[in-house]
Amino acid sequence: APSVRCCAALDAVLSGEPHGELRAASLQGLRLLVPTNVVMDGMDSAVAAAWQHALSLLYAAGVQITEAVVPPFSELAQINAKGGFTAAEAWAWHRSHIDGAGRLAEYDPRVGTRILRGKDISAADYIELLARRQQWIARVQAQMADHDLMLMPTVPVIAPKIAELQASDEAYFAANGLMLRNPTLINFLDGCAVSLPCHRAGEAPVGLSLAGLAGQDQRLLSVALAVEALLAQA
Question: C-alpha distances in angstroms, 208 versus 48, 85, 142, 183, 196?
């Protein structure tokens, strides 16, 4: 299925910018940065196997892959320790319902818990978070200067069983954190990303993420189209 072309059409609608026919980029000489910290933590065997297979295909296609530590990635958990933008902005929106109208019991408890974290984030905290984000983005941009895009597993584990997560808050929040972690890095970067299926037929779904900096959408989609074709052929 031409999923990347669908993404390109949707991007055109959302951005309001006219786009011509999407053409696949050349993979020969493409420079990809693979972070070695954070994004691989907790990876299960199924994702690891699909990931290594995808890397071997990219190497064979002439892609230049640099594996390196991206120091800012290791700092994001501490930057967002109080809940980050999600908690602060969710609380600003929902506080009239939760505090003002006393309707917390109507929320999914697991969602309500995350929203309540924003209650203790002050205006000063939020302003500091805005500044730290810009500094963080600048450092990642500097490291990306010699690379076209970034490459990582979309999530480090295959989909967990629903019953196990329903039975345990601890299991739910652990799985939720793993699923959100890698996409959160690119969201905080104000970047763009495409997730491509990279598992073999008959195996559990695994995603391969190509990610770029803000404004690199068209370059990203062009490369993703080429990588999608490479994975499909395999």
Answer: 11, 26, 23, 11, 5
